[in-house]
């Protein structure tokens, strides 16, 4: 899914050199939609905002932090499609594993 929407980077290696560049072979409108989805999530979703702030504090660039947030959003969307469920903003698996999920 990541290469399809242009979020994944392309690594070019030749002998001793290694260059990482933006993927140009993608659907540009989808790439822009995912970028803005992540940007708005940072503004309005606390978990996305915390993840972005933590990455920036560790010295990651804005682009790298946005791509990480976008990866998480794409992962959530793919999991929802696979499980055929609706989005639940209160469902968070990174928390206390011992507490039972409420239905």
- Uncertain spans: 95-103
Q: Would you count the extended β strands for me?
A: 2
Give the radius of gyration: 16 Å
Helicity range of the residues?
Answer: 40-55%
Number of distinct helices = 4
| Secondary-structure element series | HEEHHH
**What is the strand content?**
5-15%
What is the rounded distance between the termini?
Answer: 30 Å
Q: Kindly report the average pLDDT value.
A: 81
- Count of domain modules: 1
The strands making up the biggest β-sheet line up spatially as 1-2
Structural class: mainly alpha
User: What overall geometry do the principal axes of the alpha carbons give?
Assistant: globular
The main pleated sheet reads as: 2 strands, antiparallel
Write the layout of secondary structure elements.
Blueprint: H1 2-5, E1 10-14, E2 17-21, H2 28-44, H3 46-57, H4 62-83
Antiparallel strand pairs: 1-2
Helix pairs in contact: 2-3, 2-4, 3-4
List key phrases describing it.
103 residues, mainly alpha, two-stranded antiparallel sheet, 4 helices, 2 strands, globular, disordered C terminus
Task: Write a brief structural summary.
This protein has 103 residues and is mostly helical. Helix content is 53%, strand content 10%.
Protein model, in words:
With 103 residues, the protein is mainly alpha-helical. The two termini are 30 Å apart. Helices cover 53% and strands 10% of the residues. It has helices at residues 2-5, 28-44, 46-57, 62-83, and strands spanning 10-14, 17-21. The protein has one domain.
């Amino acid at each position: 899914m990541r290469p399809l929407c242009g979020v994944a980077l392309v690594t070019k290696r030749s002998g001793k050199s290694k260059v990482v560049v933006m993927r140009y072979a993608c659907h540009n409108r989808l790439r822009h939609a995912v970028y803005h989805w992540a940007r708005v999530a940072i503004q309005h979703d606390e978990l996305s905002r915390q993840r972005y702030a933590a990455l920036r504090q560790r010295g990651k660039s804005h682009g790298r932090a946005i791509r990480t947030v976008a990866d998480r959003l794409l992962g959530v969307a793919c999991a929802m499609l696979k499980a055929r469920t609706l989005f639940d903003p209160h469902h968070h698996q990174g928390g206390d594993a011992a507490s039972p999920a409420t239905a």
